[in-house]
Amino acid sequence: MQVRGKQREIPEKTRRQASSTSTILTCENPGTTRPVAIEPGTPWWEASRLTSQPPRSRGAVDNGKKGQGCAHVPGLGLGLTKGRINTGRCATRRGDSSSLPIGRPKRCGYRKFVALKEKNADLKVMVSIGGWAAGTTNFSAVVSDDDLRSRSAEHIASFALLHGFDGVDIDWEYPGKRDNASSTDKANFVIWLGLLRQELSKHDFLLSVAVGANRSFIESSYDVQQIAKNVDFITFMTYDFHSSSFENKTGYNAPLFQRPGDEDAFYNVDGCVSAWLDSGVPRTKLLLGMPLYGHSYELADESEAGVGAPTVGPGPANLSTSFSQICQMLKKEACDWSVIWDEYAMVPYATKGKSWISYEDRLSITEKALYAVEHNLGGASVWALDADDFAGNCFNIKYPLLTNILRVINYNKYLEYRRFSLYNTDTI
């Protein structure tokens, strides 16, 4: 099964800029590293798999060639209760995990996670706090109280130091939204980040945040310029634009550009990046988010199977599906599925009967990586490592999506040649 995409013409100015530099994001010493970032949030139940399977996390990944790659890996997404990291089932005694500063390193996988640095001396391992399941209530309570803000900043820095982490990632989804969010969350978040920055800097630790990408978050949740002053990089969650969990029509998980007829010109990757850059975030601190998973739908009528077609819920593949599952399914049932490439949104979708799936393939992920390079962004971010084809079942290569991202990010000097060579490969 092959898919071909229409190539975009690279503006002359962008082409010159892209070919004049080989560094997309610096890790420690400017001009010496080329990381790709992976989404934070490895849950504790995934941490035990770190030595045998890829972590479900954000972070940077070594490309396997010494000196060629550097990584930030925020993972082990933990909660925050009463200003202290909530280690949950990792706690050392029952009933009051919120009062415990440590948890059980062996049981929680901290040691295995930090031990990844033994395989890559340039790796920066970070602990991530938050995630969708963590909600808003606890964060809002912490940042709204002067004492809790200060104590939590000290506690988080001590936790990172104790376990050998190189920094902290804050994944609050989202200030000023959900649960019992407060209208003061936006301002208080900046104050808290400033205190975290102060405490973490004592140990030369990194600080990053994961943010909702939609333009509406700028007004409700984020003081963009002030956040950028306090963090080393911003993980931009440019995905989940459309899903059967909140819509009754088909749509793309992560459309790169606006399609003709789209009501909101900013409801796509390019639109979100433009809005954030216009709000003053330094482009070198922005990591472009890329999903390694798709969303499925069940069509109301299989004869109406385009973008925006009516649906009745998630497809049989369930709500969210990894690329590994999708590519194997399309390979095994190649004669049954129709794969359509959208030359406007620069993403594919697949249909079979009443099943409809929006996903990323090697071509679309390459387009997103090229976009990051062409716009001189800080780097790339993916969710999540174990969603890629890490066993190499589809193309006889492990991590095919991540491999294409690394090719683009690490070797952007050869942008035009690479664009030609990557377009001329079989893709699913």
Automatic annotation (TrEMBL):
Residues 1-22, 47-68 are annotated as: Disordered. Residues 1-15 have a biased composition (Basic and acidic residues). Pfam families: Glyco_hydro_18. Keywords: Glycosidase, Hydrolase. The keyword Hydrolase applies. Residues 35-412 form the GH18 domain. The keyword Hydrolase applies. Belongs to the glycosyl hydrolase 18 family. This is GH18 domain-containing protein. It comes from Dryococelus australis.
